[in-house]
Amino acid sequence: MGTPQRVLLAPWALLAVVALQLAGASHVIHWSLEAEAAPPPSVPASIVSPLLKTGYHFQPPRNWINAPMYYKGWYHLFYQYNPKGAVWGNIVWAHSVSRDLINWIALEPAIYPSIPSDQFGCWSGSATLLPDGTPAITYTGISRSDINYQVQNVAFPKNASDPLLREWVKPAELNPIAVPEGGINATQFRDPTTAWYADGHWRMLVGGVRGGARGLAFVYRSRDFRRWRRARKPLHSAATGMWECPDFFPVSGAGLENGLDTSEAGPKYVLKNSLDLTRYDYYTVGSYDRRRDRYVPDDPAGDERRRRYDYGNFYASKTFYDPAKRRRVLLGWANESDSVPDDKAKGWAGIHAIPRKIWLDPSGKQLLQWPVEEVEKLRGKPVSVAGKVVKPGQHFEVTGLATYQADVEVSFEVSSLDRAEPFDAAYANDAQKLCGVKGADAKGGVGPFGLWVLASADLQEKTAVFFRVFKDGYGKPKVLMCTDPTKSSLSPDLYKPTFAGFVDTDISSGKITLRSLIDRSVVESFGAGGRTCILSRVYPSIAVGKDAHLYVFNNGEADIKVSHLTAWEMKKPLMNGA
């Protein structure tokens, strides 16, 4: 693996978006925050520019976030939040609600330290809908501050008839529901999953580690969702280091887009974990034996060839089943790529990726991801280009709209794959390193070709999202997708890593698609219909607001045809966190 992301803040990010399908919300409580101190003089003015704060990606009005999940008709988004500053600490479960996953209204915090088993912190967790319709939240509490002693707790709504679920209770006679006994490392025992029901028992997973190196998902069982016992063996384990924020869910058959409730039996299952060592999210597709509570990846190489949800800045993700649209939705968190002093000066840190619908691809080997359809409600003025050929070394600008906040869909067609470069097998497991060596400005055979986004008029600043095609030792095309932000900003001392993943697609016809969601300081891209996804944070100092430009470029030797491109200006949601 290439250089891991620099994580400035704690990783146990993802809590819960509990999408509640409850009717009749009558009013909303808004809450205010105290102003931060003036930014230190060492922080560049461009970094604290309000024009870099995202327009349509969810984030609170100030300070730091790192989480989401779903439950029934109103979408409830719970997330870890520090109401006192843009750094880790003072963490509560903040709470926002939405009808459409796009427009969010902030409520009062839902869960905060109040009992002995969470007196030093309320960390990540999940929500589950019980058979009688009552939601339950399971979460990690810190009961001792000297070693961050981690236990699992449960909370229930104080008034289940309240569609906004504004108050929660933590039964003293039940909590904690799980403690790190039997040799479990008490400092690495966290993040209970959404529970599922089978054969008279509820099951949930809790992430952990054994022997300091083997990550695993502990299985806990309960008949009544109140008293839990740990199974003798974990659901699955691998020599990967600590597993944070595990997620386990069924998927429909290959190529079927409809999602399944977590308790439904599926032909295939997905097990995802967030690796503490790398700060990336990995998953495998496999089979689940309900009788033995064991999971086996389909790929014989197992966790050695696990895939990633996103090959960029994306961590501590969580899925939920949306029964209203029969889909499974993925939510993830992206941290900042500047410094802690910068975050304090801005007064905010961290965003949520646009919610993504996910399903198993026709091969059954990987998940496909696509922005939820609701985001298209924000599309405004469109501009289209069709049938335009980009010669080697050439580029053209897409004009007629403001592109600092945009949605771009483009279909490319390569004239010939004959000039594709030989693939160096040394990079077979390290696309990110390959992209670092062969970035957007490195001339190639077939590619690099793609988009320059958030670019200045003189191209001093630009973030490249592109494809590059190689040929392996058998003459088969191998597609690399990259986001290269190395020239994204003239501001000093920024972390600007290249991100990349290989695209498992058939490009023998020469055709490939790209979609990029551009939002001031984030670029979220989907290659080949969502087979490879990359989210990157960038902080331009010139290409800001209406001074940001959009270009199509080709730095390869083969002609590239833009079969069709449409770019839309994106409006701000009516409400985005407060």
From TrEMBL:
Q: Which InterPro entries match?
A: ConA-like_dom_sf, Fructan_Metab_Enzymes, Glyco_hydro_32, Glyco_hydro_32_C, Glyco_hydro_32_N, Glyco_hydro_beta-prop_sf
- Per the UniProt record, the source organism is Panicum virgatum (Blackwell switchgrass)
Q: Gene3D superfamilies, per this entry?
A: Exo-inulinase, domain 1, Glycosyl hydrolase domain, family 43
Q: Where is the signal peptide?
A: 1-25
**SMART domains named among the record's database cross-references:** Glyco_32
Q: Which UniProt keywords apply?
A: Glycoprotein, Glycosidase, Hydrolase, Signal
**What is the protein's name according to its record?**
Cell wall invertase
Which terms in the Gene Ontology molecular function aspect does this entry carry?
Answer: hydrolase activity, hydrolyzing O-glycosyl compounds
